[in-house]
Amino acid sequence: MSAIVIAVATESGVPIFSRKRGNNENIQFSTIASLHGINMFSKCHNLSVINSQVENGSILWKEYYKSVTLIGIVTGGLECDLELLLACIHDVMVFCVGKKELENLKNIDQLKRDLRQCYPILDYLLESLDPNSVPSMTLVLDLTQSILCSQAQHLQQVLDTYAERVTGRWACLSIHGHLVATSSDFYELDPRESRLLLLLAAAQDGAPLRDTLVYLPYMSPDVAFRAVTCKLLADVYVLVVCGATPALSQIDEIVLQCWEGYAQIIKEAKLVHPRNFPGSITFEPCVLGILLININRRRCVFSRHLQLSNQKGRGMSGSHRMDILRTFYVTSARDLAPELNFREILDKDSDESLGKITETYWSSEYHKCHAQRSTNLLCCVLYAPTIPTHTMRLLTSQMLQEFLTNKDIHW
User: Fold this and answer.
1) Which of 65, 169, 256, 293 is the most buried (most CB within 10 A)?
2) pTM of the model
C-alpha cells in the first residue's frame, strides 16, 4: 500500500508540503503541477472533481478556504476513507498554525516553515493506514484509540487536581499513544480536537516537558491555547491545556507534587497494554481480535493480544488481524452507528433504516467477523473460521453485556 498527501496553494499551485507512507517514490514537481492543473481546469469550467480512480487506487482533491488545496492519493488496495483523511490533515494544519494563517497566504515560505511542526502528527495519521506500522496510534481515523483499565477512575481524580493546579481545563493521560484517563471537562472538546491533543502527546519524541501553542479547530481556530506535555514514565505522557501562567518551571514542580505518589498506579495501568482490557475480562480462545467502540465519546479499544499464551501458531499475524477488523468496521460495521458517519448527509429515511440494524457479520474460509451494537457500545469481533454462526452471535452478546456491566471499565 501507499498513501501520499500533497498541500498546494490554490491560486499559484506552489507546493506547501508533501508527505507519504508506503513503497511509492517521491512525487515529482511536474506531477504535482499536473494534479493541481486538473483541479484548476475543472474549476474554470464550473465543474468539481470529486475523485478519480486510477489503477488499484484513487485520487481526491479537497479545497479549503479558497486558498489551500489538499490532494490525497492511495494505492495498493488500501481501504481508506480518503475524504476523512484529508479532513483530518486539514484539522492538523489548523491545529498547528490557525485558520487565519491558512486563509491569508501572504508568505508561503513562512507557512511552509511553520507547518513543519505538524509533520510528526501527519506522519502518525499516514502510518495508521498501514496495519504493519508499529506502534499504531490511530487504528481508525475518526476514533480515539484507548486503553480500558481499573486505574482510570483514580487517575481521573489526579488529572482534575493537576489541571486545577495549573489553571487548566482539559487534561489527559496517555500510555503508548492510547488514551487512558481524562479530566472531567475533557469531553467539552470536539472529539476531533481531543484526538489531535492525544497525537500531540504521542509525537513528543521523549521530551520530558514541552510547551506548545495550539489552535482548537472547532472551539478556537483563531486564538491559540497553550498545551503543556510532560513525560511521567517511559511512553507515559500527561497533557494539559492551560493559560499563559504558570511558567514551565513552575509546572515542572506541580507535576512532581501531583504525580510523584502515583507512579505505582500508572505502572499497573501500563501493564494493561497491549491487551488494552482489564484482567478481570476473559475471552474465549476462538476470539482472535476485538474492536470495541464507545459511540458517544468516539473512543475505541482494539486488542489482538487476548490470550497471550495462545498467540503463537494461529496462522494469522497480528497486523493481519488489525487490518481485517479495521476493514470490517469501515466497510460494514460502521453502518450500525449512523452517528459516526463523517459526512452527516444521510437522508431521513436512510438514517431511520440504518438505526434499526443492530448486527452484521462476514464469513470466509479463513476467518469470521461479527459486529453488534447495544445502546452506546459497538463491538466488532474477529473469530476463528471454525466457529458456528449462532455461537459467534451468542459470544458477541455476552461480551457486550460484560463491557456494559464490568466495574473495572471506565471510559
Assistant:
1) 293
2) 0.89
Q: Half-sphere exposure of 156 toward its Cβ, with a 13 Å CA cutoff?
A: 17
Residue 183's Cβ-count burial label (10 Å; 0-12, 13-18, 19+) is buried
Cell of 326: 479495521
Rounded-to-integer distance, Cα 237 and Cα 259, Å: 11
Fill in the amino acid letter for 253: E
Vertex 185, ends 181 and 191: CA angle to 5°? Answer: 75
Residue 355 pLDDT > 60: no
Whether residue 234 is predicted with pLDDT greater than 80 in this model: the reply is: yes
Angstrom distance (rounded) from CA 399 to CA 231 = 34
Q: Is the pLDDT of residue 354 over 70?
A: no
Query: What pLDDT does residue 353 have?
Result: 47
Q: Which three cell numbers stand for residue 202?
A: 504521542
Q: 220-232, pLDDT tens digit by residue?
A: 999 999 999 999 9
